[in-house]
Specification:
By secondary structure, the protein is α/β, with parallel strands linked by helices. The chain is built from 15 helices and 20 strands. The protein has 2 domains: 10-199 and 238-249, Rossmann fold (3-Layer(aba) Sandwich); 290-481, no CATH class. It has helices at 31-35, 48-51, 59-66, 88-104, 127-139, 157-162, 177-192, 221-226, 264-280, 292-300, 327-334, 347-356, 371-374, 436-439, 460-463; strands at 11-18, 44-45, 71-79, 110-115, 145-149, 165-168, 199-204, 236-242, 256-261, 290-291, 308-311, 338-345, 361-366, 378-388, 391-393, 403-405, 409-416, 419-426, 450-453, 469-474. The chain has a 9-stranded mixed β-sheet. Helix 4 (88-104) packs parallel to helix 5. The mean pLDDT is 96.
């Protein structure tokens, strides 16, 4: 490698290709989803791919801001909202462009990739490993490739072998996405000044941890991630672990640990320390899910002045669910709630509201596009309170600065008996991790007794500060959060379905 002898700054090719794949989602992720990705920057190539992310809390933005000692050669940026399998045509189109752009670049000293770690395509269980294989076919086995990954990555031994160094988010909600890109820049800089590759260690945990137990704002996640900085140094350049993404029916689903540095023994010891801590913490990964009806009753019975936040994690678009499930909405109407719910993905209802105009009364079928996973549509008579084009600036700790594009949105109000429920519907899927989804259309979350959000954990960063209580509800959705209820068929032998859960047994 020896780039410490270079007279000019190292030339680093940079790109992003992000997708978190829920293999149980009832729809594929197509090329069009990368063109209109909701809360993420849209597909772009060349200089535009870094111009649009500078200063933003996403990994490529953090890398770009930190890479002051590099000459950057931007290739492309592609991201889509979490969803079903990435269509082969979309995957091949993006990777072909990535490889062609890389082949056209000259005198490249290294590569940085902003990847997710849980991409599954129609053809490949490990989408990220296939991306690296195709890039290695262009640049060979030795060129340093630094990668940043999401905390929900399902890492494989093959992927780890193809990467030169890896940095993984350490917060959930992911408020450190940009910081992780910056860590990847520092790792790549260190690697470029070595004469030999990093030593690395990779470990996989023997049980799957539910998404709703993975928050680093709560124990044991807070304590476990707090260990990592103390394990660096003395031959260990970096150590991270990924909780994994449970709604992925693949061999390498689950929690994994990665460490790299200049001393193999030290790197192995650090990885083993984290693995032991994860095993010791097994009893503490509790995930309390309350049936939707009981969650609404508890929220309405609260006496404080602040709103009660109810999460709908099993219909979380951030985990690939459609965002059209109606179970929690039905519970709010039946439970005489005074509240707001959103965002429900319902392009048809949004269009109907826009056609009718503000102040109109409309009869609509809310949600239920995928009734097999999220329940049937709900018939309501609603007043159209406000409309928007769905383009607005996010303001919360995770997505602040990003421009959302949710397409035509509507704020509807339904009164049935005592129930008074405001519903925000939109045309492009996204999870509700930012209050601006409500506020941009005139719904102030602090004005309601109950605030229901289509999210699992990310909402905590922006909503927990205004809440008197947070409740995780259970109603139908395509992101099942009880691990032993997920219909897996492809997991590796011996892994257990949840903390202290049963051993996975493949079905013939």
């Amino acid at each position: 490698m020896g780039s410490n002898h270079l007279i000019k700054p190292p030339r680093i090719a940079v790109a992003g290709f992000q997708h978190e794949t829920n293999t149980f989602a009832p729809f594929p992720t197509k090329w069009s989803h990368f063109l209109k990705p909701g809360s993420w920057p849209p597909y772009c190539e060349g200089q535009e791919s870094i111009a649009q992310v500078r200063g933003l809390n996403i990994p490529l933005g953090g890398f770009t801001d930190a890479a002051t000692d590099f000459e950057l050669v931007p290739l492309l940026y592609a991201a889509a909202e979490p969803g079903g399998l990435v269509a082969a045509a979309a995957f091949d189109r993006i990777t072909q462009q990535l490889c062609e752009s890389l082949a056209d670049a000259t005198d490249i000293n290294g590569i940085y990739l902003d990847l997710h770690g849980a991409m599954v395509t129609e053809d490949f269980e490990d989408g990220e490993a296939e991306v690296l294989r195709r890039l290695r076919n262009v640049v060979g086995p030795d060129l340093p490739i630094a990668v940043s990954l999401d905390l929900h990555g399902n890492l494989s031994p093959e992927f780890v072998e193809l990467a030169s160094c890896i940095a993984i988010y350490r917060t959930y909600p992911h408020i450190d996405m940009g910081a992780t890109g910056a860590r990847a820049a520092r790792l790549l800089g260190e690697l470029l000044n070595l004469a030999t590759p990093f030593a690395s260690a990779f470990r996989q945990l023997d049980y799957i941890i539910p998404i709703t137990s993975q928050s680093t704002r709560r124990e044991p996640g807070r304590r476990l991630y707090g260990m990592l900085d103390d394990l660096t140094g003395s031959g260990v350049s970096s150590i991270d672990f990924a909780f994994g993404f449970p709604p992925a029916d693949i061999y390498n689903c689950g929690t994994s640990i990665y460490a790299c540095g200049t001393d193999q023994d030290a790197v192995d010891a650090a990885a083993d320390t984290v693995l032991s801590a994860l095993k010791d913490a097994e009893d503490h990964f509790n995930s309390e899910l309350i049936p939707a009806g009981a969650a609404v009753r508890r929220a309405m019975g609260a006496s404080g002045a602040k709103p009660v936040i109810i999460a709908d994690p099993q219909d979380n678009p951030g985990a690939g669910a459609p965002g059209d499930a109606t179970g929690l909405l039905a519970a709010m109407l039946a439970g005489n709630a005074n509240g707001v719910i959103g965002m429900i993905w319902d392009e048809t209802t949004a269009a109907q509201a826009h056609a009718a105009g503000i102040g109109s009364m409309i009869d609509v079928q809310i949600g239920g596009m995928f009734p097999e996973s999220g329940g049937p549509a709900i018939s309501v008579r609603a007043s159209v309170e406000q409309l928007s084009d769905g383009v607005f600036q996010c303001t919360g700790p995770m997505f602040g600065g990003l421009t959302a594009n949710l397409g035509p949105c509507a704020r509807l109000r339904v009164t049935q008996g005592v129930a008074d429920v405001t519903i925000v519907v939109g045309s492009n899927r996204t999870q509700n991790a930012d209050q601006a989804i409500f506020r941009h259309i005139g719904a102030n979350p602090e004005d309601y007794k109950v605030v229901a959000v289509k999210s699992a954990i990310h909402f905590l960063a922006d909503y927990e500060p205004i809440a008197q209580e947070v409740i995780f509800s259970e109603s139908p959705g395509a992101n099942p959060c009880r691990i032993d209820a997920i219909p897996y068929t492809r997991l590796r032998p011996g892994i257990r379905l949840g903390p202290n859960g049963p051993i996975y047994k493949s079905t013939p």
